Give the backbone structure.
Amino acid sequence: MQHAKQVRLQKPRWLRRRLPSGPTYGEVTTLLNKGQLHTVCQEAQCPNIWECFSCKTATFLIMGSRCTRNCRFCAVEQGTLEPPDPQEPAKVAETAETLGLRYVVVTSVTRDDLPDGGAAFFAQTIQAIQNRIPDAIVEVLIPDFQGNADAIQRVAQAGPDVLNHNLETVPRLYPTVRPEAVYRRSLGLLREVKAYDPAIPTKSGIMLGLGETDAEIRETLQDILDADCRILTLGQYLQPSKGHLPVARFVPPEEFEGWRETALEMGFSQVASGPFVRSSYHARELYQS
Ligand code: SF4
């Protein structure tokens, strides 16, 4: 019989990071507050926030800070949803320009309440950034749009430089980790983008430390490759609060390195793999590598 009591593992030495502070960190947060903008860095309690904000890098979270889904790994809150702010695409573009970004990453909460899941809003945001900063590279990290092919194509049509959709975990763990998502549907999204425009680089990733086996990781990487996706991120799952799934295992840095080598041997062209890797962590360097 299984015990319901959660065991909270102690964070290993390699996962200790500086607390957010410093003048540039303050400057970035002030700018974001001024534009009433959200970032996934703040809402998802990303452990890299000090480093990224200090380098004036952030990942914009569009269409609000509340989500329609209840993924058990994610710190973004569920709650009352507001209609998207029509000025937000312009504000994101303006703030990206003020920050001096040449690589802009945009993601969103999942908006299953909107008929197109927010695809048109993504497209407007991509275009606003491209108009304001013509030499910027734009990466979007999109939700699954419940498999709506028109919505996926709407985003692809807007011409992002990189289109990212994370699988997050191996298929066996979907019911506990992402109960409202469907593994095959997410894979289908990656395929749909390539079918629409094979020239758009696609990117995906999973978290390690949720209880997956090595064989399952390997199979998932093969599925991503079979969907013609060549950019991969692998990072450590961290439990945002007691109400979220516990960490099953802290994967040591050398194992992440082993997975990086394996993924490259399997056929991925760019791989970021490490305890602190998130899909937007050093995204520019990964794209350019
Ligand atoms: S890794 Fe991504 S989400 Fe985390 S702080 Fe950096 S830009 Fe933000």
User: Anything to note?
Assistant: Residues 67 and 221 are 27 Å apart (CA to CA). Residues 119-132 form the longest helix (14 residues).
